[in-house]
Design a protein that fits this description.
The complex is a heterodimer of chains A (about 200) and B (about 450).
Chain A (H helix, E strand, L loop, with lengths): L18 H13 L9 H19 L3 H5 L2 E10 L19 E5 L1 H11 L12 E13 L5 E14 L3 E16 L2 E10 L15
Parallel strand pairs in A: 1-6
Antiparallel strand pairs in A: 1-2, 3-4, 4-5, 5-6
Chain B lengths: L6 E2 L4 E2 L7 H10 L6 E5 L8 E7 L2 E7 L5 E5 L14 E3 L3 E2 L6 E2 L5 E3 L3 H5 L15 E5 L2 E5 L7 H5 L2 H9 L6 E3 L5 E5 L4 H9 L9 H8 L12 E6 L2 E6 L4 H4 L4 H23 L6 E5 L3 E4 L4 E7 L5 E10 L4 H14 L7 H14 L10 E2 L16 E4 L5 H15 L13 H7 L1
Antiparallel strand pairs in B: 1-2, 2-21, 3-12, 4-5, 4-7, 5-6, 8-9, 9-10, 11-12, 13-20, 14-20, 15-16, 15-22, 16-17, 17-18, 18-19, 19-20
Classes of the chains: A alpha+beta (about 200), B alpha+beta (about 450).
Chain lengths: ~200, ~450
């Protein structure tokens, strides 16, 4: 259990990337194309187990445990998607553009602070979640203990009676081996929807 | 059905039917949306000739394009041949819009330019190319914001906005160089609610922040005493149904983003903005405030999120949102507003996430057969609600009241019941304020 998320913390003291560091992290994520040697065997098994565990932690709303899976130098990014003609030379995924998430670890802490306040009426009664993670691929990065991964997810939510949302997406991660597993260092989340076909993203990816 | 029978704007009651009835919605498309000036783009989105964005005017898809002569044209995104959309991109640059179905091609002004086997039409008696362009709207801008209407009878945009322009300058004209939308297109999401709930929320409902947003405000404001809204030093103003509720805190909204650099920046601008706009208006720039330009274009000072509540049926609304900043703002500060507005007022925002469920369930619960017969209460008019005649429009002191919402629905009912624009009253401009806004 994280002790960093005590009641009414001063989030300005929490880990945060500079603008330049966030830009560099975004560029690294965009360059991740699975070009290096694939990770196989036991290590791939450990990585897949990590993602299954992460999915279950999120399903169970154990946000403080999930927070501990994030590295202090986290960059967490879900860009907007725009419909553009193929001939359009602009890069669709641009770190200067508006996004759904463009976060350091401190920003995740603020979001968890909201959920922990017991004042969020729209999560009470709670939402029910099912996360499915699949198609996990892992690659070496040239740095010992750090791996590039690519995978897909389904995130299903249901609350109240008819209120439901199913989001499919693809993730690219940089993960770092730590004593008892891994930590997420960088994460790019790509939803295929250009118009988010639900009212909010009250969920972590 | 008369809309006026469903809206009592003096005491403040609203018939619940207006939030879900398909027949009322159809009439809104005709009498409210098709007769209003609707926001379509910011000039900064289409700076170069050939640049375009696509958007919606109510449920009509339109293209907003910059022509070679610099003019901004707005025209229907629907081929007059079989009706297909002619542009499927949200934004881009080009010389022509070519329909995928039979290849009819249209210019940056919407005019029909060519099609495959043109000779077949040239030899068709009575066919004239100039009759079959994409239908063009009237277009006008106010300080970077581009509006359009297909209604020939509507008054000018200047008359439509009236003296609300004087207030709008508190976000649109705080320094030389104008404003821009931050890059990356619109943040878009869907709510299963009637479009009027978000519009009336922004026009004058700060009251909800004291309860709805307790959780969202806790991480950034909890240590500083939480959400504080008082009627002391705060106002509601309304012109032609457009409304703005605000206090005199200068950066109260900005503070909820929890970024000290942004507060430092806001403070650094206070003296210059006060010199430019005067003490009263300068305080509106980033204060605890919200506004709606009738019918469905809203913004939040301080976060500088601007958004349209696009109707997609009586119980479905699409939110399209952008962040507006002064063009000459330092890049680092622009980026902080980009992330700050995203983290508060976007589908992932810690404040916007509190809102959607309220509007969705207000919409659906109002449709119950028994439920629909009890009117909704828009009556809040506290004793401190005093009128002021030294400011343009209808002004009440105290931002905690339903005054603007009553005037929003008064305007809505006037437009719904009017046979023509001649029957819709429009507030005259006071020269003191219209000249200042020029």
């Amino acid at each position: 259990m994280s002790t960093a998320l005590d009641r009414k913390p001063d989030y300005s003291a929490f880990p945060r990337l500079s603008l330049e560091e966030a830009r560099a992290a975004a560029a690294d994520l965009l360059a991740m194309k699975g070009a290096r040697a694939p990770v196989e065997g036991q290590m791939l098994g450990r990585i897949e187990r990590f993602y299954r565990q992460e999915a279950r932690i999120l399903d169970e709303e154990r946000y403080e445990d999930w927070y501990d899976l994030l590295a202090d130098d986290l960059f967490y990014w879900m860009p907007l998607r725009e419909n553009r003609f193929r001939r359009d030379s602009r890069s669709e995924l641009d770190p200067d553009s508006m996004a759904f998430f463009d976060e350091s670890k401190a920003d995740i802490a603020v979001r968890i602070g909201r959920l922990k306040s017991n004042l969020v009426w729209t999560e009470d009664p709670p939402t029910r979640h099912v996360y499915i993670v699949s198609n996990v691929e892992a690659f070496e990065t040239g740095v010992d203990g750090e791996f590039e991964t690519h995978h897909v997810f389904t995130q299903y939510r249901n609350r109240s009676e008819h209120d439901e949302a199913t989001l499919f997406g693809r993730r690219r991660d940089l993960i770092r081996a730590v004593d008892d597993g891994f930590q997420i260092v960088r994460r790019l989340i790509l939803l295929p929807q250009s118009v988010l076909l639900t009212k909010n993203l009250s969920v972590f990816f | 059905m008369k809309a006026a029978d469903l809206v009592d704007s003096s005491f403040g009651t609203i018939g619940r039917r207006i939030f879900w009835d398909p027949a009322i919605y159809e009439l809104e498309l005709e009498r409210v949306f098709a007769r209003s000036w609707l926001f379509v783009a910011h000039e900064s989105q289409i700076e170069e000739p050939g640049a375009f964005v696509t958007t919606y005017m109510a449920q009509d898809s339109v293209i907003v394009a910059r022509a070679d002569d610099g003019a901004i044209n707005v025209f229907l995104n629907s081929c007059p041949h079989r009706g297909n959309r002619v542009c499927f991109a949200d934004s881009g640059k080009g010389r022509a819009f070519t329909c995928n179905y039979h290849g009819w091609a249209f210019g940056l002004d919407g005019a029909l330019k060519k099609m495959p086997k043109m000779g077949l039409y040239k030899s068709t008696p009575g066919f004239r190319m100039e009759d079959w362009g994409l239908r063009r709207a009237r277009v006008a801008s106010y300080k970077g914001l581009v509006f359009a209407t297909f209604c020939e009878e509507a008054p000018s945009l200047e008359q439509w906005l009236g003296d609300f322009r004087w207030y709008l300058d508190a976000v649109l004209d705080v320094e030389d160089g104008g404003t821009e939308f931050l890059p990356g297109g619109a943040t878009r999401s869907v709510m299963r609610c009637n479009w009027k709930f978000p519009a009336d929320n922004f026009v004058g409902d700060i009251y909800h922040a004291l309860w709805t947003h307790l959780g969202g405000a806790e991480p950034t404001l909890g240590r500083h005493g939480g959400v504080i809204v008082e009627n002391e030093g705060s106002y509601q103003v309304s012109v032609n149904g457009h409304g703005w509720e605000f206090n005199d805190s200068f950066f109260g909204n900005t503070a909820t983003m929890g970024d000290r650099e942004l507060l430092r920046y806001m403070r650094s601008r206070q003296e210059a903005i006060t010199a430019r706009l005067g003490d009263f208006r300068s305080k509106m720039w980033g204060s605890v405030a919200s506004a709606t330009i009738f019918p469905n274009f809203s913004f939040l000072p301080g976060y500088f999120t601007f958004r349209t509540f696009q109707p997609k049926g009586p119980t479905t609304t699409e939110i399209h949102a952008w962040t507006l900043v002064p063009k000459n703002m330092p890049d680092d500060i622009k980026d902080r507003f980009r992330r700050g507005s995203m983290r508060t007022f976007s589908p992932s925002g810690i404040l916007e996430m509190d809102d959607g469920e309220n509007w969705e369930h207000s919409t659906s619960a109002n449709a119950g057969w028994v439920t629909r017969n009890q009117k909704l209460c828009y009556a809040m008019a506290p004793a401190g609600e005093v009128e002021r005649d030294d400011l343009p429009g209808e002004v009440t002191a105290g931002q905690l009241s339903d005054a603007n919402q009553r005037l929003f629905y008064k305007r809505w009912a006037e437009m719904m019941d009017a046979e023509s624009w001649a029957d819709i009253p429009t507030a005259g401009s006071d020269a003191r304020y219209s000249e200042a806004a020029e």
